[in-house]
Amino acid sequence: MLPTKLHLEIVTPEKRLLSESVDEVVLPGREGYLGVLPGHAPLLTSLAIGRVEYRKGAETHYFALAWGFAEVLPEKVTILAEVAEGAEEIDLDRAKKKKEEIERAMKEAGSDFDFAKAQASLQKAIVRIELADLQIRQRGPGRKGGGGGKVPPADRGA
User: In this structure, is the dihedral angle defined by the CA atoms of residues 82, 86, 92 and 94, taken in order, positive or negative?
Assistant: First the structure.
């Protein structure tokens, strides 16, 4: 009989960020996003910069992620991430400021500038901004706190 839930763990070198039973996980693989449901065939994959989505019932939760690996088993998904942060932890103003700094540095770059590193940093900032915007829309204008990374089903594709 196929499992009906997945156990999702998200771990960074500093700490375990999440350990929960979920219905579905979407991962930012190196070749594109990968959807995982209970009973998925076992696999190992490297992860790129992007967002991890997981669904519990009607609520979708998000993490910003940069690099790592995922082990997928029929009943469990383990993400070993170099960098990860929950959507509710992201400071939108700080993320926007970082994006502007990177874009300015890229425009003013000399011949010894590391464009690959700057592009990766820019991509991380963009993912963080997108997730922070989702958090704000979910909470509503003028409200602080709460939300816990939860986005109603109507906002999923945004």
Answer: negative
State the total domains in the chain.
1
Q: Where are the beta strands (DSSP E) in 39-121?
A: 43-47, 50-56, 59-73, 76-86
**CATH number of domain containing 94:** 2.60.15.10
- List, for residues 11-45, the tens digit of each pLDDT value: 999 999 999 999 999 999 999 999 999 999 999 99
The two tokens of residue 157 are: 């594709």
pTM of the model: 0.78
Residues 6+ apart with CB under 8 A from 117: none
At residue 93, the 3 state secondary structure works out as helix
Quote the CA–CA distance of 21 and 150 in Å, as a whole number: 15
> Which range marks the domain in which residue 20 is found?
1-158
Query: What size, in residues, is the chain?
Result: 158
What confidence tens digit (pLDDT) does each residue in 33-78 have? 999 999 999 999 999 999 999 999 999 999 999 999 999 999 999 9
CB 81 within 8 Å of CB 11? yes
Residue 7 has pLDDT above 60, yes or no: yes
Q: For residue 84, which amino acid is it?
A: A
Q: Which residues contact 85 (CB under 8 A, 6 or more apart)?
A: 17, 63, 64, 128
